Amino acid sequence: ALQLFREMLDGHVERNIITYNAVASACEKSGVSALQLFREMADKSIEKNTITYSAVISSCEKCWDWHQALQLLHEMGECFVERSTITYNSTISACQKCGKWQQALHLVYDMAEKSVERHTITYNAAISACDKGETYQQALHLLREMDECRFERDTITYNAAIRSCDWCGAWQQALYLMYDTTERSVARKVLTYRAAISACLTGAQWQPSLDLLRDMWIGRVEMDAFTCKSALAACRLGSQWWRAAQLFREMADR
Questions:
Q1: Is the pTM of this model over 0.90?
Q2: In contact, 53 and 26? CB cutoff 8 Å
Q3: Cα 141 to chain center, whole Å?
């Protein structure tokens, strides 16, 4: 798309908002910043719309440029360009990637104030930002808010929330969330177990670590080296390494 756009320049083909939006979207999908195109539109007085901003902000997210994403979202308000759910989600994701959980939470509440529709993807990104920011209380608050708004929690939601518990050593809360996945019939993946077992390791809890590992085996969830090492390390901390060895032998025999 970028090569075609350059050929358009050489051939003096008219450039308008449609062509710029198409190229900006191509940049976003390729993980390339579209800021240069955005500035060129301003230089040529080409009007920018929600699609333009959404594509450019999404490209900023792919490039880990959370500050620029926030600036563009703010500019949309100043230029009276409608901010969409996609625009906000991309900006929240940009903040999430860089651990800017305060900014991510502010954007979620800003969406509510401006009556912009939120959904599970919005909250997943914000909860993941709390994971990066090591603040599990905020992650749990967002989980409760999802229930209040009747947004469905999925595996990604729980993975992020349990990781935030791991970072803060809140192993009891991590185990509760694992139990909650069963109550809500949410699929547990290897990343879900990895985060929960890691939280148990942080809290030096060998018994729930082994229980989770056994649950993975019974549920035929693929085990990775990190998860097994975390469970073994928790057993070592509790001077119960032989229990882990016993479980591994049992799994090998069957």
A1: no
A2: no
A3: 16
What DSSP designation does 32 have?
Answer: -
- End-to-end CA distance of the chain: give it in Å, rounded: 54
* DSSP 8-state symbol, 169: T
Q: Are 162 and 125 in contact (CB under 8 A)?
A: no
| Inter-residue contact 28 to 34 (CB < 8 Å) | yes
pLDDT, tens digit (0-9, with 9 covering 90-100), for 153-183? 999 999 999 999 988 889 999 999 999 999 9
Taking each helix axis from N to C terminus, what angle separates 101-113 and 136-148, rounded to the nearest 10 degrees?
20
Helix ranges, the chain (H): 2-10, 17-30, 35-43, 50-62, 66-78, 85-97, 101-113, 120-133, 136-148, 155-168, 171-183, 190-202, 206-218, 225-237, 241-253
Amino acid at 218: I
* Spatial contact of 163 and 196, defined as CB atoms under 8 Å apart: no
CB–CB of 98/70 below 8 Å? no
The 10s digit of each residue's pLDDT in 21-34 is 777 777 777 667 77
- In degrees, rounded to 5, the angle at the alpha carbon of residue 51 between the alpha carbons of residues 48 and 57 is 90
Q: Could you say which DSSP state residue 44 is in?
A: T
| Cβ–Cβ < 8 Å for 78, 71 | no
Rounded CA separation 30/34 (Å) = 10
On whether the CB atoms of residues 190 and 222 are closer than 8 A, the answer is: yes
